[in-house]
Structures are given as structure tokens and as C-alpha cells.
Amino acid sequence: MLDIGGETGALIIYTGRDLHGREIEISRVDQDAVVRTHSAVRERIVRDGVFHSAVYPDLAAGLYTVWWDEETSAGTISVTGGAIAEFVWPSSPPRSA
Questions:
Q1: Which residues of 49-88 are buried (b: 16+ CB within 10 A; e: fewer)?
Q2: What confidence score (pLDDT) does residue 92 get?
């Protein structure tokens, strides 16, 4: 269940099965990158099959960095209040990783 509305949104990061169980960290771009939120990649069974994702159910609206590792960004994503943002995990490490 996602708790979205007003200034609160959600984020889903889609990954491959190889990341099952891995914790993926995110942080707000406008805050100290040391303050991070994490979620584990889980298997999700749906009517049409299976996919893997990490879900962040109640995020303040804003721009977020998705972290590849402790020091390397995998990208950024904008979370909007009342909506679900979607990010696809890169298939290979960023150039700086």
C-alpha cells in the first residue's frame, strides 16, 4: 500500500532479478547526501508474471538521487505529490563507478 497525496509521493525502482535482496539507497538532492533512505529489492508477483523492484511508499515531493553505491549516483528522479515516480535501474555501472 502506498501513502500518497498532497505533497507526498512514492517511488518504484525496477531492477533485474540479480538484485533481489539488495538495499538501494536514495537521498533528496537538496539535503545532505549522508541522510539516505533505503529499501530492499523484492520479487513482486503480478497477474502477468514476476518483476523485481524496490518501493519507497511515502516520500516528500522533490528531486532524489538514486545511489549505485556509497559514492556513485545511478541517476536522479523527481517525485511529485500524489503520484508514483518510476526509475529503471541501469543495466551497467555508471562511468564513475
A1: eeebbbebeebebbebbbbbeeeebbeebebeeeeebebe
A2: 86
